[in-house]
Amino acid sequence: MPSMTLHIVIVEPDESRARLVIDSLQPLGHRVTVIAEASGLARRVAEIAPDIVLIDMANPSRDALEEMALASGPMDRPVAFFVDRTDRDLTRQAIEAGVSAYVVDGLQPERVGSVLDAAIARFQMFRRMRLELETTRRALEERKLIDRAKGILMKARGISEEEAYALLRKTAMDQGRKLAEVAAALVTAAGLLS
Amino acid sequence: MTLVPLRLGFVPLLDMAPLAVAQAIGFAAAEGLQLDLRAAPSWSSLRDMLLWGQIDAAHMLAPLPVALALGLNGPVRQVDVLQVLSVNGNTVVVSQALAGQLRDSGFGFDFEDAFAARQALAEVQPEVLRIGVPFPFSTHAALVDCWLRGTGMTYQLTTVPPPRMADALNAGEIDAFCVGEPWGSVAVDQGAGTLLLPGTAIWAAAPEKVLAARHDWIEDNADTTARLMRAIWKASRWLYDPSNRMAISELLSQPELVNAPAELLDRALSGQMVISPRGETRQVAGMIRFHDGATPFPWRSQAAWFATQLACKHDLDVPASVSTARALFRTDIYRQTLRSVGADLPGASDKLEGALTHPTAVASERGTMILARDAFFDGRIFDPDRFQC
Q1: C-alpha distances out from residue A137 to A132, A134, A169, B7, B119, Å
Q2: Chain A residue nearest residue B315, CA to CA
Q3: Using CA atoms, how far apart are residues B322 and B328, in angstroms rounded to an integer?
Q4: Testing the interface with B: which of A44, A62, A63 to mutate, by most B Cβ within 10 A?
Q5: Staple A7 to which of A50, B161, B208, B225, CB 3.0 to 4.6 Å?
Q6: pTM: predicted TM-score of the whole model, two decimal places
């Protein structure tokens, strides 16, 4: 039934992420268009005139879409905000997953619901991936810092690696700071003195 | 003492300084608070984070709570304004192409006379002038409207995220923009634009960012609200001390705060603006204010000014809009909370906007209140009791 098909725009600069969202929406029978460029975003969305626009909450260009709800002259299709009173649970889930959606007024809630469920699932996945990446990166950086701090101590005080580590840990505990913070301070200070 | 954690949202801009200072200098800890500062990528995301409880309070565009209460930005929601975080801090920037045309026409870039700048623009810009603003409901949009509306000049406001302004100018998507510092200075530094005017040239005392929280959250957390307000107010007093200026720009330049070079942040703090890529400088009085001139006080007349602007632009009932907006600016909580820390309080919660052509002493509890110059470029005066379009 062609009337069941929704035209959905995804604003996403990362091609592989856009692909994942497309793959989750096309099986539902919807037509999906991707906009990767931030320039002239509101104008391009207006030209496409989709039923739903999905955008990552972390995308700074999201503000450009806020104009759509304002620019609705008599000939334009009114755009409602997804942040709506009708389905608070779904809205909360979407915000927590980091996806925001702009929906044309008058769409049946159940039709919007299935699209959003799919989008929310994908965005939750992105969020997890992003967090894991960030945690891994930080852990690596901290380890590098601690290794350098250990090296500095071993050289300056002629102690073993275990003793250097114990000294760092004790200092961190005494000062109520994180091991990585103490290591960073030592590395910076050593850099200044050398 | 265990500190109470509080989540505060902000958008990376110089005027989020009171939040950063409250946490970093210890004013929050002195009030038993631990501020968890969360950068938002856009104003719409910041708004959603606040409405949906991911943050407790926010650094917000002054007209945004008004737009929310009027139902202009999604379903009607009540977000209250506890105090004003900053006044001014904006620049109007033109593309290098437009700057060249203006220079050729003999315009001197005095960085002062908004009337002359408008006239010069009208002469060189026959078509539609496309102006970038950070959000549809912003002091920036209101300032541009105030400056150009009804003058016969054809202009169009487009929303562009502040970090993209310089690129949009370079790419020819827009001809000019109005935005908060450091983004005007960033465009100059990148050779993308020339500063045409400081925001002060349009309105000498334009309320810019406010400390906002949901009405129901404030009701449920009266004590925490008071502690937060005291910490932010003391931070604003610290910001007023010129000897702290270098510490401010260094603090804010951090990647998790404003993430811009300290040298650029320092320009608006000192009022010493570099207006063009060729290095011309201009000194601006009151380029940004955090404390003096009763800056933190949430004047209800300013709520009325924004409401009138929005109601006229969007065809809403003006008196009803004004009365809704006035109730959002919580002068009642401000008076009750900040008297004890030494804030001087004005006799009235409304004033004429735009009536002061020089600093003026006004009636206040301690008798120490001096309001800054607040004139509009065209001498108009806004009377909150006699509003009209």
Answers
A1: 8, 5, 22, 25, 54
A2: A70
A3: 10
A4: A63
A5: A50
A6: 0.88
